[in-house]
Design goal:
About 35% of the residues lie in helices and about 20% in strands. The chain has about 400 residues and is of the alpha+beta class. Helix 7 (about 175-190) runs antiparallel to helix 8. The longest helix has about 50 residues, at about 55-105.
Amino acid sequence: MNCERCGARLKEGCLYCSSCGKEVQIVPDYNVEEEYLSTILKESSAESFDPGTGQTEEKKQETKTEKKKKKKRTELIPVIAVCVLLAAGITAGVSYKLYIDDRNANSYEYQVAMAEQVWSDQNFEDAVQYYQSALALKPDDLSARFALADIYMTKKDEKSALHLYQEILELDDANKDAYRKMIAIYESRKDYDSIKELSANVMDLEILELFRDYIVTEPVFSMEAGTYDDYITITLYSEDGDDIFYTTDGKSPDSEYGILYKEEDEISLEEAGDYVIKAVCRNEQGIYSDVETAEYTIDLKAPEHAKISPNGGRFEEETFVTITAEAGCSIYYTWDGADPTTSSERYTQALLVPEGNHILSVLVVNNKTQLDSGVYRANFIYYQSMPG
């Protein structure tokens, strides 16, 4: 840069000209037009060449960028590798867990073990689910059913427990434990009818022994049901010495209508007609037997006419007449032709035929029913023969 006044060369950094002392005016040492042209040339130039490296500035920049990218890629390789390994591990873990879950879901032993574990923790709902899953895998299993029934009993769900015990008996009709548990449930309800029903098809004597205290034998009638032509008297008794209740009008004896039968009692049917007698035994526990029913018909018949021998006739010498009738009957007679009644002479021994012409009238009366045979008559004529 030169001094404007004297044109001397100014030293760099001096504020005054060393020759003439004029203050230096700092003006950029470039031409505006030249600067503009230089800028255009730079922009139009594809590359700026660096003599030190033999590369253009743009090429140098690209090289630096590429190196940075390579460095970043190099730095990312371990990270990617770790991520891949983690992903592979997670995938393997998930696959293994799915395998284990599938294996457990199809394992009866696992389901039972889990049921026992959660049951011990008082988690009944999950225990039920596990036992049900176990039964789905082994439908004929009895132990899982017993365990599941125990859970239902703990939850006071007797209906579900009874259903399971019934399933057990369908699989094993000689399972005494199932019978015991069902009997216990019915007994707690005082549902003795269900106990009877449960025992109905049991043939095994050992199992029947479980029902001994709940099975009451029916009462016995002294006379078979049927039709009788006479009054009858019936007595009742219990083979096991249980109380007996009865009715004679067809009503149920195991209710308020039952009459307590006493040992000295007799049930007398003393009128003609139809009778329905029902009786039942009750043991000390208050359990009733089945009701025993007997139907009787009293169809009373009048006694037959008496048999007279001789049966009337003409006689010239003393003659005795004998009269016979059915057992249990009395015979009444008259000789004057009048109808006999129970107030007439009663036949007790052979009769001597009176002399003359007489009508023997005979009436047979049943001592119990008082029915009579009606009058039977025979004509007797007796005159002693005159000598020679």
